[in-house]
Amino acid sequence: MRMMCLSLAAAAALAVAAPAGAEEPRPGAGTVLPPAKEGHAYPECYCTDSRGQRVEVGQLACLQIGQRQITSRCEKARNLVIWRHQEEGCAPGV
Questions:
Q1: Higher pLDDT pick, 57 / 7
Q2: pTM for the complete prediction?
Q3: I need a surface site. Which of 2, 5, 20, 82 has the fewest CB within 10 A?
């Protein structure tokens, strides 16, 4: 999995020095980030399920691992996105 997120420690450090008029926090970020420099943007944070589909941070997905199906939540951990196991099996609609 590729690293696709700004480190939370770096984000917190940036938030301390954020100038007036800084952008609103992104969902799940928990901090206010300063505007990105001209011509640049912060990377998007998301997971990719076992079918290659994009799953947003905080959403549940059914993952196929070998012969098993598990329900997992896409979460951020430092500067990575991870799958956190929730339960065995998958409920309809997940």
A1: 57
A2: 0.57
A3: 20
